[in-house]
Design brief:
The protein has 60 residues and is an all-alpha fold. The chain contains 3 helices and no strands. It has one domain. The two termini are 18 Å apart. InterPro entries: Phageshock_PspC_N (IPR007168), PspC (IPR052027).
Amino acid sequence: MSTLVRPRKGRIIAGVCAALAHRFGWPVLLMRLLAIVLMVFAGLPLWVYIVLWILIPKEK
């Protein structure tokens, strides 16, 4: 597992899904699909994504 940072390349909106995927060694597409499914079906609010956007530092 690597450190939790939002990458400069390969991100779509803020890089939160890409950061989590790299951290846990998962494919980025799988993490993005999981985030969408959780937001739609499990009620994961968008503000959780925004909070992670703020808390996860950018790659230097």
